[in-house]
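User: Could you write out the 3D structure of this protein bound to zinc ion? I've included everything you need below.
Assistant: Certainly. Input first, then the structure.
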Amino acid sequence: MTNDLDFAYRIYYDYQNYLEKSLSNRRIKYSDILPLINQLRSNNIFTISEAGKSAEGRDIFLIKIGKGKTKVFLWTQMHGDESTATMALFDIFNFFASNDSYSTVKDNLFEKLTIYFMPMVNPDGAELFQRRNVFDIDINRDFVKLQTPEAKILKETFDNINAEFGFNLHDQSTLYSTGHSYNTATLSFLAPAFDIERSVSPAREKSMKILGSLFNTMSSFIPGHIAKYPDEFEPRAFGDNFQGLGMSTILIESGGWKDDTEKQFIRKLNFISLLIALKSIADESYNHESIETYDSIPFNEKDLLDLILRNLKYKKGGHEYIFDIGIIRTELNGLSSSDYFVKSSIEEIGDLSVLFGYEDLDLDGMEVFPGKTFPKEFSTMEEVEKLDLNKLYLEGYTNIILSDENFSQDISELPINVIKKSQRNINEIQVGNPANLLIQKENQIMYIVLNGFLFDPSKRDGRIRNGIVFR
Ligand SMILES: [Zn+2]
């Protein structure tokens, strides 16, 4: 076992000691990290400074640790809804601040490296849980024009630090697969190109070697779940330009992992990845890696959907045929951006043998129908709240009719869909429509799909986050 792998296993098992428990879901805000940053001020191993203010006046912090000659700069959440690495940074700060059996490793890191962290580059976007900043500009496409305060701050900080290594930390779609496979691309790596020819400079070569070594180590934990971003040059992006300016730049994207909606396992993978990458920079152990390892990492592909139902029989218009149905669930911000709703959609119908589902069921011998609409009309949602929805599911109902014309929400907070009185018969099995299905074998109901969530109605199921409103 190599030194790096041994260290990775140890911190994997000890991770719970460092988990920052106050950050427990993806929708963290500036107000969640502010007290944590203030706490770091009382520990003299950290130097905290304000690098500048966001468009809405929130501080963007720079946290420095170590006194070594090799400088490393890590920044997270340029995109406000990509928070996985931000959570992991606070676990790393806890790791650095602890008195534990890792003092030799840490002393070595702090002696060889000076590490600068900029968590949550886009705090205004995080507040709204949106990708862009408050001007609706993508900060990671603003390197050249520098119109957003956040991009200016990132660029100025880069200029001031003049780091040898940089980590650009993001989240990607959970629907990416590693190559053409059913494996989720849980982590995706990129050593960004800095020109159209995708040249390999000495700086880029170092990024490739670090990522190759990281790929080897992290594959022990998530074999088959690490992919690589295509390296097309994006002239407006930070990583590409930083690489071109000579900082070895490493992009890590956090993707999906089954049943890890809040990305807490992926956060742990970030914690381990970043610490072993820092260790390999301090030890210069990445130098033993060849760039062929990086080249061998499979590309990101988009072969995943949230739910695939295969080999369903369907009768319509005098035809009877067999098809697969592929469904995705899109997250929408709730009334407050701390909360969210889900809107499902039928993404594809037909032969889906080249695609894979997080949930993937062969329903050979079963027949699919649109989810049924309960015949009685309700005048208020209060009446609907009193219903035993489980009884409705058992009879195949996925929708109710509401006559209340004042009801203006786009989603139903109850686990049932709402059809406005004037909008009947729109619940068809068609690409682009929400996924509300009834699946039977002979005359028995086997499954219900309600707003993209599959369940067996004879078993209580709490997974349905919300229904939708047909209007
Ligand atoms: Zn991003």
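The longest strand covers residues 319-333.
User: Perfect, thank you.
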